[in-house]
Amino acid sequence: MAKSSGITIDERGYIRNGDGGLTSRDIAKKYIYLPNKEKFQEEFTKYVVHHRDMGKFNNSIKNLLILKQEQHHRIHYGGMTKKEYRRILKMNNKPIDKLARKEMKNMPSSNEVKPEPKETTTKTYEGKKLLYILTFFIVILLIILSFLIFPRNDMGVQDATPENVPTTIQTTNIPTPPISEPVCNTRKILVVNVKEGGERTICHPSNELLFGDIKRYCQNLCDSNNMPMTTIHKQNDDPTLFRCGCGAVIDYDMHI
């Protein structure tokens, strides 16, 4: 991190104040959230702060928007409609200015987003229901056939098992080999799930490990959970420990 008179710039390029908090969040809470608190349904900690011009150093009030995580994801990766964006601007007490028009340029209008037809869901349900009924009758038919083909011994049918053949077969307990972690001949990354526990090992193809490689591994972890990557940063200024956040729900510690 770059430091200057109590102000720091983290590895993602965001400005932090003396106590480590994001300057953009402090400004947004004081000048946007608190004056318009009746428009927000959640506590401030439930929201994220968006830089409208994508400039991480521009923490002016007109450049900041308070919105939910899923809304922030739709702005960056698509899916945000113009109607929803206007509602966010109104909640933040901001007019439709040049910044808003630029960001709304490629957003679809509400009438362009067509809802999924319910007929498909109904057909799928009816198909599954028919499959369950058919499976039930097949199972009943197999049970009846088993009684007809293989009658019980108390109905006069002798046991066909020879006397010299043992009725039980002794088996030898074969130990199951433990699942071993991969052996890394180069750089090893230990990944720990912070909330649920559990570890996994990632073998880096070379001994040289750049921040871009760590960010890529974090993105792969989040993709495997179908969640967006929300943060990747050092933990407690430890150069060997990084925190990878996925959708503000799952956190991984990456020991390099």
Order of helices and strands: EEEHEEHHHHEEHEEE
Q: What is the architecture of the largest domain at the second tier of CATH? A: Alpha-Beta Complex
What does the main sheet amount to? Answer: 5 strands, antiparallel
What's the Cα radius of gyration? 30 Å
How many alpha or pi helices? Answer: 6
Structural class by secondary-structure content: alpha+beta
The rounded distance between the terminal residues' Cα atoms is: 18 Å
The helical percent reads 25-40%
Mean pLDDT score, rounded?
80
How many domains is the backbone divided into? Answer: 2
In short:
By secondary structure, the chain is α+β, with helices and mostly antiparallel strands. Helix content is 32%, strand content 20%. The protein has helices spanning 23-33, 69-77, 82-91, 98-103, 118-149, 211-224; strands spanning 2-4, 7-9, 15-16, 48-51, 64-67, 187-193, 199-204, 229-235, 238-246, 250-255.
Describe it for me?
By secondary structure, the chain is an alpha+beta fold. It has 2 domains: 2-112, Homing Intron 3 (I-Ppo) Encoded Endonuclease, Chain A (Alpha-Beta Complex), CATH 3.90.75; 187-255, no CATH class. The protein is 32% helix and 20% strand. The chain has helices at 23-33, 69-77, 82-91, 98-103, 118-149, 211-224, and strands at 2-4, 7-9, 15-16, 48-51, 64-67, 187-193, 199-204, 229-235, 238-246, 250-255. The strands form 3 sheets. A 5-stranded antiparallel sheet has the order 7-6-10-9-8. A 3-stranded antiparallel sheet has the order 1-2-3, with no helix packed on it. It has a two-stranded antiparallel ribbon with strand order 4-5. A hairpin with a 3-residue loop joins strand 9 and strand 10 (250-255). It starts with a strand and ends with a strand.
